[in-house]
Write a structure and sequence with these properties.
Elements: E1 6-10, H1 17-30, E2 38-42, H2 48-55, E3 60-64, H3 81-86, E4 91-94, H4 97-102, H5 107-119, E5 123-128, H6 132-136, H7 140-152, H8 157-160, E6 164-167, H9 181-198, H10 202-206, E7 208-212, H11 217-224, E8 231-234, H12 241-251
Helix pairs in contact: 1-2, 1-12, 5-7, 7-9, 11-12
The chain binds 2-phosphoglycolic acid.
2-phosphoglycolic acid is lined by residues 10, 168, 173-174, 212-215, 233-237.
Length: 252
């Protein structure tokens, strides 16, 4: 089965509404001819409405970078999935390593956020990945499959089929030190094998696995040429319209 490539840009804590709109204008122009690749961008919460308005009818989806697991109530500063859906998001990133490390998102919280995403009708991009110490001690594969098992434990088959998984080795995020295509492929194959062990064949066959961690125009083609790498979750290089366009082109 051929899987349609999926490139997502994670803007992290960059670009307020005005600057986000400027980037969205450029993306709209540069990506107007794209038909081969699914594309999403994830602006910070406050910039979502501007980007949704700008990218309407372009085929570029808008994702949130996180969501709260709860529905509503007295939780100052939190944003619920339903609000994101109402604001025009179709996707949401869940379990990014920065959320796990800096904001205390445990495996249980990640699972609750996934459930909340589906409740709100959002399609999650679930991030998994090991630290350098875990890789050096030979635990990379077990860390990643344990993260998957914990996150997917309560999901129905129907929900799992709507998932995108982003493998992001933590040592490659924002460091300029990308995983080699062979290293990334090896983990993607392991993730697909794990899916094959736990779900019917359509799951490993159809789920899209993105690689993330210092993806740039210069390394995107080699990564995306790997048989189990179906897309990319792009941080730094997604803040530049030309770079992001070039990464999308590398996927097509
Ligand atoms: P990076 O970020 O491309 O800047 O390494 C990737 C990510 O954190 O999703």
């Amino acid at each position: 089965m051929s899987r349609r490539p999926f490139i997502a840009g994670n803007w992290k804590m960059n670009l307020g509404p005005r600057d986000a709109d400027t980037l969205a204008v450029a993306l709209k122009r540069l990506l107007a001819d794209n038909t081969a690749t699914d594309i999403a961008v994830a602006p910070p919460y406050v910039s979502i409405p501007a980007v949704v308005a700008r990218l309407r009818h372009t085929g570029i989806a808008v994702a949130a970078q996180d969501l709260d697991p709860l529905k509503s109530g007295a939780f100052t500063g939190a944003v619920a999935g339903e609000m994101l859906a109402q604001a025009g998001c179709s996707h949401v990133i869940v379990g990014h390593s920065e959320r796990r490390k800096l904001f205390g998102d445990t495996d249980d919280i990640v699972a609750a956020k996934l459930a909340a995403a589906y409740r709100a009708g959002l399609r999650p991009i679930l991030c998994v990945g090991e630290t350098l110490a875990e890789r050096d001690s030979g635990q990379a594969r077990s860390v990643v499959t344990n993260q998957l098992a914990a996150a997917l434990v309560d999901l129905s088959l129907h929900q799992v089929l709507k998932l995108t998984i982003a493998y992001e080795p933590i040592w490659a995020i924002g460091t300029g030190r990308t995983a080699s295509p062979a290293q990334a492929q090896e983990m993607h194959a392991a993730i697909r094998a794990w899916l094959a062990e736990h779900y019917p064949r359509e799951v490993p066959a159809s789920l899209r696995l993105q690689y993330g961690g210092s993806v740039k125009p210069g390394n995107a083609s080699a990564l995306l040429a790997q048989p189990d790498i179906d897309g990319a979750l792009v941080g730094g290089a997604a803040l530049n319209a030309e770079s992001f366009r070039d990464i999308v082109a590398a996927a097509s």
